[in-house]
Amino acid sequence: MTDNTYTPPKIWTWDSESGGRFASINRPIAGATHEKDLPVGKHPLQLYSLATPNGVKVTLMLEELLAAGHTGAEYDAYLIDIMEGDQFGSGFVAANPNSKIPALVDHSTDKPTRVFESGSILFYLAEKFNAFLPTDTVQRTECMSWLFWQMGSTPMLGGGFGHFYAYAPEKYEYPINRYAMEVKRQLDVLDRQLADNQYISGDQYTIADMAIWPWYGALVKNRVYEAAEFLQTHEYKNVMRWTEELGAREPVKRGVMVNRAWGEPSGQLRERHSATDFETRTQDKLEPEEAS
């Protein structure tokens, strides 16, 4: 590490030119920066999101609900471009005062119900449709413990390891080592749990799996941060097995496509309003129209 150490000033001030991939959208204050209403489609459930791991949790859940026959889970999904600051529009801030994706608005209630924080959305949908959440008290508690584990642990992966390893303007040994150690510990926690269980909380596929898979499944498959070799994620055999099994599910394959705006055009469904959109409205089919 460099010999130059940082001495914090007595009073912190915001340096908007601090650098890093997300410097242009990070700020120390909340609230809207501009007026912009959110679109509203034809279905009761309106999702405003982006296919980051937190966004994928919800689209995965919605597609699983539909595959299980819950027709009331039909939804419209609108893309929120966080690099363009869409999350700071007045409409989105009204749906989520924290200005983070995803946000869900349920218009089936007497007054539209806003739901924000991905774990809260999963729980809301599980209760609404009585699905993917065990009814047995012990099993339900185990599921919820793992859901909260994900919500509490993943900031160490994303905001900690991912930031310093992949996004920070400069690489420093101490934070990378600190967070790499913690992420490998978390992978070991999951690997030990999955050694004796098919799914995260037992023999049932639940919202705990849907919360954890988009983050840790993507990590071990080298789809985030390009750190699989660095972290030697192939060593976590049980996590790899579980990752492959969930990734082979058709609703999961659909869920990862929704609100995706990067990668292969055939895998991008930037807006989703109907199940047929997966066949007719992916970006590879829209780009010829846009070019004409």
Question: What this model shows, in words?
Answer:
By secondary structure, the protein is an alpha+beta fold. Among the domains are: 45-129, Glutaredoxin; 137-254, Up-down Bundle (Glutathione S-transferase Yfyf (Class Pi), Chain A, domain 2), CATH 1.20.1050. The protein has 11 helices and 4 strands; from the N terminus they run E-H-E-H-E-E-H-H-H-H-H-H-H-H-H. The protein has helices spanning 53-67, 90-95, 118-129, 137-167, 173-195, 207-220, 228-231, 237-247, 250-255, 277-280, 283-291, and strands at residues 45-49, 75-79, 103-106, 113-116. Strands 2-1-3-4 form a 4-stranded mixed beta sheet, covered by helices on one side. A hairpin with a 6-residue loop joins strand 3 and strand 4. Helix 1 (53-67) packs parallel to helix 3, helix 4 (137-167) packs antiparallel against helix 5 (173-195) and helix 4 runs parallel beside helix 6. The longest helix is centred in the middle third of the chain and has 31 residues, at 137-167.
